[in-house]
UniProtKB/TrEMBL annotation:
The chain crosses the membrane at residues 31-49, 61-82, 94-115, 122-143, 163-185. It comes from Malaciobacter halophilus. It comes from the Bacteria. This is UPF0056 membrane protein. One of its GO terms (cellular component) is plasma membrane.
Length: 190
């Protein structure tokens, strides 16, 4: 989780005149969603992949493509695949796209499944859960106060950060795609 980077992305999606009270609600709803998503994945993530016969690397490739589209959109000056230009209440954007897939995307999904595989006992699972929840709380406080960053930076600063984050998200997306494709190719060629 990258709370500072995600806050910049989220602020570019939310309406430009969002109030402190609205951002508090969005931060709360987003954090609650990612905590619920964590427990759903840790309990049933492997099962879902097995049922559909999906390799984790396929998730990496698809997630990389989605992130690449968002990155291109951010670099071109729009706020991502989804914006608040249609007048949606900011709270509606808290779950999709902010919580899922921006905060809780394929990378986090894959990481949770990998950590679960490495867990040897219930104590290991408990420590993974506690660590994730602590990260979620840190994310909540940073995201909740991100409106101050937006006010400090102004419109130009926010545009610069959005374009820089677009470059970073684009680089991450390419890394996801390459990693997933290379691993899938190796497994199918052997």
């Amino acid at each position: 989780m990258d709370p500072i980077g995600i806050s910049a992305i989220a602020l570019s999606i939310l309406s430009p005149n969002i109030t402190k009270n609205e951002i508090n609600k969005v931060a709360y709803k987003t954090t609650l969603t990612i905590i619920i998503a964590f427990f759903v994945v840790i309990i049933s993530g492997e099962f879902v992949l097995k049922v559909f016969g999906i390799d984790v690397n396929s998730l990496k490739v698809m997630g990389g493509l989605v992130l690449l589209l968002m990155a291109i959109s951010m670099i071109n000056g729009s706020s991502g695949l989804i914006s608040n230009s249609d007048g949606k209440p900011n709270e509606e954007l808290a779950i999709i796209p902010i919580a899922i897939p921006i905060v809780f995307g394929t990378g986090l999904f894959s990481t949770i499944i990998i950590f679960k595989h490495e867990a040897n006992n219930i104590a290991d699972l408990a420590s993974i859960s506690i660590a994730y929840c602590l990260n979620a709380v840190i994310f909540y406080f940073i995201f909740k106060n991100s409106i101050h960053i937006k006010r400090y930076l102004g419109e130009t600063g926010q545009n610069v950060i959005t374009k820089l984050m677009g470059l970073i998200v684009g680089a991450l997306s390419i890394q996801f795609i390459i990693s997933g494709v290379v691993t899938l190719a190796k497994s199918y060629l052997n």
